[in-house]
Design a protein that fits this description.
single chain; alpha/beta; 8-stranded parallel sheet; globular
Length: about 500
């Protein structure tokens, strides 16, 4: 019987800690900006499962943590291990503040993403991604890094930094990662590598790209790197089939997400319809044919609503190698969430009063985005209205062709007048949250403005919180693994 022919109903195999071929049964999802940081990924990897760090905005988080004085010295230790000391020393000289900048002081900005070459920006991205993966790998086991296809301008330099640290997996969602297999192939050989960037208003045949030249950046050609496995995060069997059709676009596997997974999710197929709570309505067209995914012959994991032992068993019965779980890890004690916010989320969720809304308007990326409703966060209309509209991080800015020529950048969460001057439509600005600043604030690194204004947090979780009843107070990453794998787990630290 082939994997595609295994029955989904009836007797099912029991959960086990590894899949056929030695693949992990459990992937800890990449979450937010720094929520799945090196501490969490290291704790999961030590259990024998796949720990994943978020690769989003690591340039910002490294720079701000260095300005906070790098408590514990972990980042400085990672930078000391970077293979070209001159690069990491420049980063330290620019951002490190002994003892920290002090409460309420504004953080120094980092170079913004763009299409023009910028050596300082590339150095910071490479070193920051190296440091995060290097620290995660110190406990042993498998480590992955999660990127967003939507943030194309960050990918080449970021991925190269992670590969210099020996990352085992690259996971990518929020788009179609068809260019990433070739990118990883070239970076493993230290060859110049680039990705095409979508530019609004560009004419047919007009190409824009961003890339990195490893040898020019490092000043030498090191030994070839290990090429990490690529897992494409998809929400349809059609997209999985499209990516698997040729070697040039084929990933090494898939993570198949349902609409209840946290963070960004795919919009419903067809015309967008909203329910009475103004959340997207998903229907039969949005259900993934797992038999078709299995028939592609590549391993896959199921995500979104599988944070239980039964969920793992059901995934295995459908032919999956295992499951990806995010929210259960986002709320554990090794999570990168600001501890005060994490405790507030846990308290509200355990009491049954936490609402996680799939907001079709919140994210400038244009994808529905799960927003956890807590007071004093951007989820509250009053807090949202009080926040000055600005765009000073810009990771979700969209490149566009200016009428007078050249490429500009715009974001529907920036000041409305500025967005309209750049050719945007007024309806595109309605309800947009600054996801970049909100997610950075959620891990305790929010910017403080010269006028005293402090960025409020934006918190995201998945909509399935039933797992909390099975986990103890103050639980850790190892408790989540034990909850999911039970007696099959042989990787207890």
């Amino acid at each position: 019987m082939t994997i595609a022919e295994r029955p989904v109903h009836g007797p099912v195999p029991s959960a086990s800690a590894v899949s056929e071929g030695g693949l992990p049964a459990l992937i800890q999802g990449g979450m937010g900006v720094g929520v799945s940081g090196w501490r969490l990924a290291r704790a999961v990897a030590r259990t024998g499962q796949l720990g994943v760090v978020s690769g989003v905005a690591l340039d910002v988080t490294l720079a701000r943590r260095l300005q906070d004085g790098d408590p514990g010295g972990h980042l400085r230790a990672a930078l000391a291990a970077f293979p070209v000391p001159a690069l990491s020393e420049r980063i330290l000289a620019r951002y490190y503040v002994r003892g920290g900048i002090g409460p309420g002081a504004p953080y120094r900005p980092v170079p913004r993403l763009g299409l023009r070459p910028n050596r300082a920006r590339d150095e910071l991205a490479v070193v920051a991604n190296f440091a995060e993966v290097y620290l995660a790998r110190q406990g042993g086991g498998l480590i992955g890094i999660n990127y967003l296809e939507k943030i194309q301008m960050a990918t080449p330099a970021a991925a190269y930094g992670a590969m210099l640290a020996g990352v085992d997996y690259v996971l990518m969602g929020a788009g179609i990662p068809s260019q990433i297999p070739r990118l990883l192939d070239r970076l493993a050989a230290h060859l110049p590598a680039e990705v095409s960037v979508t530019v609004a208003g560009a004419e047919s045949g007009e190409r824009h790209a961003v890339g990195v030249d490893p040898v020019a950046l490092l000043g030498r050609a090191p030994e070839p790197l290990k090429r990490p496995r690529l897992l494409a995060i998809v929400s349809s069997d059609v997209l999985a089939g499209y990516l698997a059709r040729t070697p040039e676009t084929r990933p090494d596997g898939f993570v198949v997400e349902t609409p209840v997974a946290g963070g960004h999710s795919a919009p419903p197929r067809g015309r967008m319809r909203l329910d009475e709570s103004e959340q997207p309505v998903y229907g039969p067209r949005d259900e993934v044919n797992l038999g078709k995914v299995a028939a592609l012959g590549l391993p896959f994991w199921l995500a979104g609503g599988y944070a239980s032992r039964d969920g793992l068993v059901r995934a295995r019965a459908a032919g999956a190698a295992g499951v990806q779980v995010g929210t259960a890890f986002a709320l554990c004690r090794e999570s990168g969430l600001d501890d005060k916010e994490r405790r507030r989320l846990l308290e509200r969720a355990r009491a049954g009063g936490l609402r996680v809304r799939n907001d079709p308007r919140a994210s400038p990326a244009g994808f529905p985005f799960k927003v956890a409703g807590l007071e004093e966060t951007v989820a509250e209309p009053e807090v949202y209205e009080r926040r000055p509209r600005l765009c000073d991080l810009g990771h979700l800015r969209t490149p566009y062709v200016r009428p007078e020529g050249g490429v500009g950048f715009r974001c529907p969460a920036e000041p409305v007048d500025a967005y309209l001057r750049k050719g945007g439509q007024p309806e595109e600005t309605d309800g947009r949250r600054c996801v970049c600043n909100g997610l950075v604030a959620a891990i305790g690194l929010g910017q403080h403005r010269p006028d005293g204004y402090a960025e409020p947090a934006l918190l995201t979780l998945g909509q399935d919180l039933d797992f909390l009843g099975d986990l103890p107070e103050g639980y850790g990453a190892a408790d989540v693994v034990a909850h999911l794998l039970g007696d099959a787990w042989e990787g207890r630290p």
